[in-house]
Amino acid sequence: MAKIDVSIEHRHAPAPVDGGRPHPNTCPKCGSHYRDDELDSNLRVCSQCGHHFSVRATARIAQLADPGTFEEEAAELRSDDPLEFFDLRPYTERLAEAEVSTGLGEAMVIGGAAIDGHPCELAVMDFSFMGGSMGRIVGEKLTRACDSAAERQVPLVSVTASGGARMQEGILSLMQLPKTVCAVEDLHDAGVAMISVMTHPTTAGVLASFASLGDVIVAEPGALLSFTGPRVVQQTTREKLPDDFGLAESNYRFGHVDAIVPRPELKPFLAKLLRIFGNGR
Amino acid sequence: MAGEAELRLREHLSRLSQMRLLGGTRLSGELKRLQEQLERIAAEPTDEEIWEKVLLARDDDRPYALDYVERLIDDWIELHGDRLRADDAAVVAGVGRFAGHSVAVIGNQKGRDIKERTKRNFGMAYPEGYRKAMRVMELAERHGFPVISLVDIPGAYPGVAAEQHGQGGTIARSQALMARLRVPIVACIIGEGGSGGAIATALADRVLMQENAIYTVISPEGCAAILWRDSKQAPRAAAAFKPDAVHCLELGVIDAIVPEPQGGAHTSYDEAAMLLGASLQAALEELDSVAGDELRRRRRAKFRAIGTVKSLAAAT
Questions:
Q1: Contact A88/B228, CB-based, under 8 Å?
Q2: How many domains does chain B have?
Q3: What does the domain layout of chain A look like in residue ranges?
Q4: ipTM value
Q5: Which of A131, A137, A239, B229 has the fewest CB atoms below 10 angstroms from its CB?
Q6: Closest partner residue to A212 among B158, B173, B222, by Cβ?
Q7: What is the CATH number of domain A55-277?
């Protein structure tokens, strides 16, 4: 029996609360509004216009991994504060706050899993944790995910969502670019595939390192994939930006990604790739 | 701090004092002055001194890559173009002879006057620039030439075309290529080591940094605009993220500091080149006897270990 669709009753967004930000469950493209369970049951894709809402790391893992197969690794890793960095607030305070609000130790979750029965290693980023920024622990986790994939001879699937390097770790955050690049090169040498799934947003330091080194690069529709964000480009160059500046669709047109895969098709698409690149070689 | 940084600096100085430098000049007359410099460098800079270094690193009269090439590389031939679509003048690349070896040199190049600055896009490379560097590195690999990389870039160019031509992916692939090379690579930050644009050509066996150079994940202005919401707070941002050579050495990001003439590299191009040449030569000599596969293995291991969190094991 068909489920009664009640989403229409919720289509008009509640008035924005603090600071004029729209409600997180309101579609920024078409204004449709959803209850949590409605969004979750549709993989957090707007059923009216197809807009892809952001997905937290744990939810992403639940969407991709077969139930009960995910075994998290390196969950205990936490950043420290190498520069004793203090802007308007101390870095340690920002870290603690991020951990409390997200329930995660860092902006990346890694571990072994199976997708449609195909074993793989997952490295999934969470934009809610300090903008998915890459500091030393994110670099370390990605490196460990590469090693774990190489050791078990299973493909690595990375799912990125990041504003770039974590400024609060200064030059050490820039060093995560070569660090993760070296880890992926070691993985390539071990004959193990890496599949990179770029989600909104995959920018700056993450785009300029491991995320761009996948054997196959997949993007979600509408994701911003740019080294420099549109606002900075606009401000510094005063160039007129194309409407699709930096978006997955533009990257596809210019030859930087292999496929744009809508979220409902992502798991079967990855399963197909894992059949090709996985242990059946 | 000081401890390890000072040790490395002293070691470097003692090497300098033994070494025959270009044209047979010896450093002996310089030693006393270098000794003073050692004391100056080894001290952790104050917040004001860090900002002075930012200004020195960006000084309009600071020597650029080609100024060093002119003084250090014999038989220099500049190579042009990325073999795909363009020749990016913000990156220079070529081959020549250095200290008895054929070498490949890649460098970022700003311009001296407004005309040249425009031509070279103020040293801000497009993806075509990294691709030119990459194809010259591949050439070096084929012929067994060591690679010298002189890094001096405010940052990758933030433009529409640069994005469309694959800025992020190209920076990633340039690093990946450097992680695969079997020839020795020595990089030196000679001015601004600006973010992704800098690391694109700095994944080297030995990473050196001039005394007044800076190495940053984001420009101080950019950092201030994001974290302080005011780009005028750049000096505070610079003080907070510590982009100077002494801090970079202390954090293990670079391997050695290259001294500059008193007052900065711009006060004497010849002396600055001599000091840089000595450091490059010393670094290349250290790498000379290492086999290609081992070089590559060590290079990757080095970058994988940078900035490892001390509390990793102790974490709960």
A1: yes
A2: 1
A3: 1-53, 55-277
A4: 0.93
A5: B229
A6: B173
A7: 3.90.226.10
